[in-house]
Amino acid sequence: MDRAMAQKLAGQAIEAMGRAYAPYSGFQVGAALLTREGKIYLGCNIENAAYSPSNCAERTAFFKAVSEGERHFSAICIVGGKGGALTGYTAPCGVCRQVMREFCDPEIFRVVLAVDEEHWQEYLLKDLLPMGFGPENLK
Ligand code: THU
User: Is the distance from CB of 57 to CB of 29 less than 8 angstroms?
Assistant: First the structure.
C-alpha cells in the first residue's frame, strides 16, 4: 500500500478509536476498512455489561460496510491501546480474521497495523490466517 493511503487509513482508524465504547476492558480499538472502490468504513469496539455481546472494531467496520451493500475490500487498518494510548501494534483477534476471510481474498487483502500515521506494519490476510476455512469450502 502506498504511504499516503496508509497514513490516511491510520488517521481515520485513530479517529474511530476515539469512539470506542470499552468501559470494561479499557482497551480501545479503531479500524478503517477500505473498499476496492476507495470508500472507507470506520469501526470501534463496542463492549457490553454481559461481556459476550461485545464487538471488535474490525467487525463493526465490516458489518457496517456489508450492511450498506459493500462486498469487495482491499485493506483494513487497525489501531488500539489501553485507555487509547497508542504504544504498540494491535493485531486482529481470530474471530475478526475469520470475518475478513468471508469477504476478502487472502492473497490480496492487506491488514495494516498502525501505531500512528508514520509507523505501521502491513500483512496479507493469508499470512495471518493460514489454511483458513472459507466460502469456497462449502461449494
Ligand atoms: N478488540 C478489538 O476490538 N479488536 C482487536 O483486534 C482486539 C480486541 C477489543 C475487544 C474488547 O473490546 C477489547 O478490545 C479487549 O479485548
Answer: yes
Q: Is this model's pTM higher than 0.90 or not?
A: yes
**57 touches ligand 1 (CB under 6 Å):** yes
Q: Is 77 in the pocket of ligand 1 (CB under 6 A)?
A: no
Instruction: Dump the DSSP string for the chain.
Output: --HHHHHHHHHHHHHHHTT-B-TTT-EEEEEEEEETTS-EEEEE-B--TTSTT-B-HHHHHHHHHHHTT---EEEEEEEEEETT---S--PPPHHHHHHHHHHS-TTT-EEEEEEETTEEEEEEHHHHSTT---GGGG-
Q: Is there a contact between 82 and 112 (Cβ–Cβ < 8 Å)?
A: no
- Ligand 1 center to residue 80 CA distance, Å? 8
Q: Residues 77-91: what's their mean pLDDT?
A: 97
Residues labelled catalytic: 58
**The pLDDT of residue 85:** 97
Cβ–ligand 1 contact at 48 (below 6 Å): no
